[in-house]
Amino acid sequence: MSSERSAAATSGVGPGEALPDEAHTFPQGPAQVSSDSAGHVRDQAGAAPAAGADWLWETPLVLAATPIGNLTDATERLRMLIRSAEIIACEDTRSTRHLIQRLGEQTEARLVSLHEHNEAARSAELVAQAAAGTRILVVSDAGMPAVSDPGHRLVRAAVAAGVQITAAPGASAVPAALALSGLPTGQFSFGGFVPRKQSERAALLQRLSGEEWTTVLFESPHRIAATVAEFAAALGADRPAAVARELTKKYEEVLRGGLGELAADLADRQAGNGLKGEFVLVLGGASPCDGGTQEVMELQEAADVVIGRAEQGEKLKTVAKEIAGAHGLNASELYDAANRRRAAGRNR
Description:
Blueprint: E1 2-6, E2 33-35, E3 41-43, E4 61-64, H1 76-84, E5 87-90, H2 93-103, E6 110-113, H3 119-131, E7 136-139, H4 152-161, E8 165-168, H5 173-181, E9 188-193, H6 198-210, E10 214-219, H7 224-235, E11 240-245, E12 252-258, H8 259-271, E13 279-283, H9 299-310, H10 316-327, H11 331-346
Parallel strand pairs: 4-7, 4-8, 5-6, 5-7, 9-10
Antiparallel strand pairs: 1-12, 2-3, 10-13, 11-12, 11-13
Helix pairs in contact: 3-4, 6-10, 7-8, 7-9, 9-10, 9-11, 10-11
C-alpha cells in the first residue's frame, strides 16, 4: 500500500464542510466586510459591488462550483457571478456569506437558502424569478450544486418550465480523487455517498461485485474504516482501491492499495488518533473473469464487519441480518458470532 501527502495544497475544507477562519493562509480581500439587514455583503465603507458583464447572465440561472478546500481554486467567473447576481441560492447562507468574505468579494445579491428540506418548495419560486429575468446564482457549501448536493430538483423544475440554466464549472472532489487514485480513468461511475440503509448497501455491494468500471464514492470520517472493511470482505481483499482525504488542503493524503490493506490501515488510524476530514473512496473495477459473483465471506470475517458497523451506531441484529443475506450465511449464527467476538474484545 502506498500513502502520499501533498505539502503544496493549501488548507481549507472538503465536500460539505464550512470554511473555518484558521484554515486559510492566502491573502485576504477588504480589511472588513459585513452583511446589511437585507443580506447584502459589502465592504467597510458600504460600497456596492460593480455590476457584472451582461454576457455572464445570458442564461438567468447559473449553477456554480465553489472551492472544496483551497480558496485559490475559486474561478474568476465565480467571482464575477457573485458580484453581479441579484439572488444567491445557497445550501447554507452563513457558509456562503463567509465564503464571499474570505474571497474578498462584495455583492448586493439577496442570499436565500436552498437545501434538501426546502428545495422542492423553493425551486418553483426561483424558477419563476429566473423566468422574469432575475439573475440567480446557485451554490453549495463546496463543489458543484446538484452533485451529491442540493440543486437537482431546481434543475428539473427549470427544465420543466422551459427556463434556461447553465453551469460554471470549478473544483470537484470526484475528478480530483479519480486522477490521484492511480486507477483506470477511461471509464468510471460516481455513486455519491455510500448508503446507510442496510438494503441499499447490500444492493450496492452486489452491483460493485461485477462492476468493471472504476467507481467513486463519498464516505464520512466516522464510517470510512468500517465501510472499507466491509468492502474488503465482500469484494475481496486484493481489489485495488484508493482513499483520498482532505483534497486540496494542506494535509491532503491519498492511500493506495488493496481493500484489505486499506482496511487495516484505516482501522489502526481510527484506533489511534481517529479519522478526520472528508473522504473519497475510489474502487478499481472487478476483473472480467470474476463473473460478477461475490466472494464467500467466512463467518468470523463477517462478524468483524458486523461489529465494525455496529460500532458506528447501527443495530447489531439488523446489520447481521443484512450481511448474512448478502453472503449466504445464517443470520442467527452470524449474530451470535458477532456478539461473542465483541464480548471477547471487551474482556481483553
